[in-house]
Amino acid sequence: MTKLLVLGGRFAALTAAYTAKRLLGNKIDITLINDKPYAVFRPNLPHVALGLAKPEELEFDLKSALSRKGINFINGKVVRIDANKNAVYYLDSNGKEHIERYDYLIVGFGAKLGVEKIKGFNKYGYSVCEPEYALKLYNRLKEFKGGNIAIGSGVFYQGSLRKRGKYPESWAPKADSACEGPVFEMSIMLPPFLKRLGVYNKTHITIFTPGSDILTDLSESARRLVRDLYKKMGYELVTDFRIKEIREKEIISEDGKKIKADIAIVLPPYEANDVAKSSTPELFDDAGFGLTDEHMRSISYDNIYFVGDANQLTVPKLGALAVFTARIAAEDLANRLGVNVKIESYDPKIYCIADNPLENTGVEVVDNTLFNGGISRVTESKAKHMAKSMLYKYFIWTKGDMALDQYFEQ
Ligand SMILES: Cc1cc2nc3c(=O)[nH]c(=O)nc-3n(C[C@H](O)[C@H](O)[C@H](O)COP(=O)(O)OP(=O)(O)OC[C@H]3O[C@@H](n4cnc5c(N)ncnc54)[C@H](O)[C@@H]3O)c2cc1C
């Protein structure tokens, strides 16, 4: 039987595995390898940072979820892909190396949070990007007595986006930050939290960005809304700030600028997954992101797909694009294996809800101007908060099977 190997265990890999199974049934044997035994709903990690959710409420066990759908699971850390041998090498929990062979491979192991690129991050830095960071932030915030908070994102180590084959250089947009959504979300979630703590009036908040403006992946009109909002909230906005170091009371940029920060909440620099460094080089761009065509097939090895944050194309790095690219890859594979289904066109759009649960509201952003489209909508309402809550519940109920994701916007 045809063997499909899927790497990763969140939006991209799960969507690819579930969709391939749904479309191909018994025609395919699917194994998924993830370095953790569980999956986590990442978009709600800011809730953990404010004590509104526990990490385990955002997680589910991968082995039982996948086996119910007839998909095999291996808990292992992938260390190398050898595309010439159709082989993936991984380490088990005892550090022993194993090999897993495939006919088709879907790589959905995401990007890497380059925390080591910021001096002092481990000692003084805070983040919301993984459960352990969000918990550490909650423990700090609940004891906060007022002072300076800086929130912002690190640099995106994107690669040079060189031209390849028939695809133009500009096919994937250039971005200063990989994903500033969590920065915006934290900036609107924090005030009600600090008010409850009784320290809001004693706190100064600075938002920093490596770009020339905040949220440069959105239209100018959307950014103006955000700038006006920050002004109304009394926030300081510092642009062109490429964070290099975090100290006890301040953060420092590459060019020596300083921002006062008793708490620095940073979306760490985004880099490609380390596995790229030891794998077949032709699979990747110069930063280590997977190079594919519009069906997410590698341009060098056509039995390999890259989906989600691991693909060079997905800019900004968003769950919505991870799910979309994974669906396209599974549809393409189904057609190659004789099941005739429509393959969606990669027509990206930023779709994101910044939740504000303590005020029972949410801000939805739908924007495709980065991709030369004409949509730019920012809507705040209680319904958007409900939509984000539903998305989370849906993810947990279906064990990460985002089959209805495309209808959520409606
Ligand atoms: C705080 C936060 C909030 C966000 N909110 C939103 C939002 O509201 N909407 C939205 O669209 N996007 C949001 N995003 C972005 C979104 O979470 C990511 O784009 C998305 O998670 C990417 O999915 P992925 O499956 O491609 O990669 P990842 O989520 O990074 O998953 C990669 C998986 O591969 C595993 N892995 C990594 N390396 C290895 C290895 N060597 N071997 C085995 N397994 C490995 C990881 O453990 C993980 O399970 C948010 C991001 C953050 C950090």
Descriptive account of the structure:
The protein is globular. The two termini are 39 Å apart. The strands form seven sheets. Strands 5-2-1-9-20 form a five-stranded parallel sheet. Strands 11-18-12-13-14 form a five-stranded parallel sheet. The chain has two domains: 2-112 and 271-348, FAD/NAD(P)-binding domain, CATH 3.50.50.60; 113-270, FAD/NAD(P)-binding domain. α1 (11-24) packs parallel to α8. It is built from nine helices and 23 strands. The longest helix has 18 residues, at 319-336. α7 (220-233) links the parallel β13 and β14 (236-238). The model has no long low-confidence stretch (mean pLDDT 95). With 410 residues, it is an alpha/beta fold. The structure holds flavin-adenine dinucleotide. Flavin-adenine dinucleotide (FAD) is lined by residues 7-13, 33-36, 42-43, 45-46, 77-78, 108-110, 128-129, 179, 181-182, 273, 275, 308-310, 317-320, 322, 352-353.
Q: Give the CA-CA distance, first to last residue.
A: 39 Å
Shape: globular
Percent range for helical residues? 25-40%
Quick one: biggest sheet? Answer: 5 strands, parallel
CATH homologous superfamily heading of the largest domain = FAD/NAD(P)-binding domain
The number of helical segments is: 9
Low-confidence stretches: none
> Proportion of β residues?
25-35%
Task: Determine the CATH topology of the largest domain.
Answer: FAD/NAD(P)-binding domain
Number of domains: 2
| Biggest sheet strand line-up | 5-2-1-9-20
Coarse structural class? alpha/beta
The overall average pLDDT, rounded, is 95
